[in-house]
Amino acid sequence: MIKKAGNTAHPGLALRAARIDQGLTLRALAARIGLPFSTLSKLENGKMAMTYDKLVRLAQGLGVDIGVLVSSAPTVEAPPPGIGRRSILRADSMRPISEHHSHFYPAAELLGKMMVPIIIDVKARSVEELGGLVRHGGEEFLYVLHGAMELHSDLYAPLPLAAGDSVYFDSGMAHGYVRTSELPCRVMSVCAGAGIQRLSQTTDPDWMSDHPA
Fold first, then answer.
1. How large a percentage of the chain has pLDDT more than 90?
2. pLDDT computed for residue 200 by the predictor
3. Which residues contact 160 (CB under 8 A, 6 or more apart)?
4. Is 82 exposed, middle or buried (0-12, 13-18, 19+ CB in 10 A)?
5. How many Cβ atoms from other residues are within 10 Å of residue 1's Cβ?
6. Which among 136, 3, 2 is positioned nearest to 71, based on CA atoms?
7. Contact 108, 207 (CB under 8 A)
8. Nearest to 65, CA basis, from 111, 132, 129
9. For 29, phi and psi rounded to 5 degrees?
10. Does residue 206 have a pLDDT over 70?
11. Phi, psi for 120 (deg, rounded to 5)
């Protein structure tokens, strides 16, 4: 039986602990990462979905691994193999929910996934505009659907990627996506690992719904 994480261990608890540990008030952190104070308060209190793009901004603002913000999530029993699960996402149902990236989450309603696919419209034109690099435990596969970008990291020189190019990398390495083409750039990112699984288990299962920033 698949168990959904309870509200007693939502990522907001870890967020509050990390913020207090750095001596930051809610308003100070909100100003640092460019989120409204009310939004940050709702995130800390588990009253708003903690989506991946919000966690990226929070991890960047606090200078911590994403895993720190989801480490308090309880272990969720994985579904048994071979049960025939499937999830279909139609193109016209995808809606953007981020400023620098537009993140779309296929199969968002499936709990206990072994991997988390994300379709991303890369918008930031520099690491500075992106807000810095981010890291999380596990591995990541990136495939460029159209446009061109660079994969920036703290271990390698920026890696140019064009439509049809792909890269598989350790997502524990700080990384970020930067658009280099004048035309829009869309990529498919598939994340796997304990950290990203905890994220998918503790965020709102309806990641496709609009969450105002």
1. 26
2. 55
3. 148, 149, 150, 180
4. exposed
5. 5
6. 136
7. yes
8. 132
9. -70, -40
10. no
11. -125, 130
Strand ordering across the sheet containing 185-192: 101-104, 115-122, 185-192, 139-146, 166-170
**190 burial via Cβ count (<10 Å: 0-12, 13-18, 19+):** middle
> Sign of the CA dihedral 75, 76, 82, 88?
negative
Strands (E), 45-200: 101-104, 115-122, 139-146, 148-153, 159-162, 166-170, 175-179, 185-192
pLDDT at residue 69 tops 90: no
Best CA proximity match to 151, nearest among 137, 131, 168: 168
pLDDT of residue 94: 63
Tokens of 38: 């009310």
DSSP labels, 67-110: HHHHTTPPP-PPPPTTS-------GGG-----SSEEEE-TTTT-
- Rounded CA separation 36/97 (Å): 15
pTM for the predicted model, two decimal places: 0.66
Beta bridge partners of 151: 159, 177
Rounded Cα distance, 16 and 27, in Å: 12
- Kindly tell me the sign of the dihedral angle through the C-alpha atoms of 47, 53, 54, 55: positive
